[in-house]
Design goal:
heterodimer; A: alpha/beta; 4-stranded mixed beta sheet; two-stranded parallel sheet; 10 helices; B: mainly alpha
Amino acid sequence: MASRRKSLLIIFITVAPILLIAIGSLLFKLKRVGPESEVIGTYIQTGAIDLNYRETLVEMATKFTKRSRFEGRVNTTRPPEQGNLNIYMLGQDPQNRFPDIKCNCAFIGENIILCDKMFFETFARSVDYTPDPKIPVLNEVNKLFNRWLGAWLLGHEIGHAVLHGGSRTIFQQAFERTHDWQIKEMEADEFVIAHIDPEEIQKFNFSLMNLVFQVYTRAYASQKPTNSSPVKIKVPADRIHGPWVQRALTIAALLEQHSPAGKSDSDYLPMLSSEFAYSDDGYDVGPLCDGIKIRGPNQ
Amino acid sequence: MKRFLLSIVAILFLTALTLLTLRYLSKGDLLLAQEAIVSPWRPLLRAVGMALTMVAGIVSSLLAERVTSGKETNIWRELKGVFKSTQFILAVVVAPIVFNAFYVSVSEIPRGLPDFMLAYQNGFFWQSVLERVRQINPSEAKTK
């Protein structure tokens, strides 16, 4: 009986590592060549991924990948490549393989960033001023917003890829908790700020402030708060991403610290921030998809 | 030999459960730019997945009890015995109470593997969970 147990133990000791290696290799395979890569390859061939964004994506990626392992290694037109940062603009999802990307932009692991084209377009143009041929400067202002809001969005996801991509395996994804995500979100926004050149700070700040004012205007119009009370802004249910306006204000405050002049003594930003309160029943900017903007001519 | 096979079955079961959770139920834990528009089916699927994981925990607990009490083990006989036992019927009857106790302890929106492991653990120690629920003052339970 004892010798039988002993032999069983030997078998177990022999089999267990093999089983562990088999499981490990299976997981590694899932990580290394995820089915997402194949789907992206198909989407590139069929045109579901819009390759017309190549220039925009490369230009922004060049800015945000400086001094990182992805510097000079950005791919936007070929199927995902290991070691490169792969960024794509998803026009359609015919196989419904990326339901989470709908009205979103995401770092999905494996050095891949996917953006819903409609979301990117709507967000980047979310505070468009109605073009007026009599006021040509508005076109330039709109271009400025478009560039910097788009840069914020993509820079944020590139930040995730650079800062959180190296070690983020499928296992770690599954074990992450809400708190870890909140920290990662803040780090990605700080990454964007760290890559803004000093001479660009003002432009980015101007775009952020316009977003803040437009959200305030919308919220004020719908709530008409009395006694100078702050307007209420809806907090996303996932409790991970703050409302866009809150994020814009946080970034603006950090930008101020990064500006060549240093942190201002003015209480402008704290006062502006105090005009907003955050609750579940506040004003919601919506999913910023399908051309429904915060301000501007909607499609 | 049977015990060894039982261990292998248990390992394979847990592996399958882990892979299933990773691949489907935990899917969507991406680093998104903003809150995801979640399909109304996903929270339901997760809740069902966790309930099934908890039942798996209950079955494992009863199976472990039977295996440890007997000298010789026949896997299929023990498994059949679990499903025929009054303990199992009792466990299934009280499962909603155990599930509720566990469900309120995880986040509002359940996500990730730890929640599923907690579901399994609560199923495995269903008697202790039930005892804990029983000890809660009814008025306190009402406010909770």
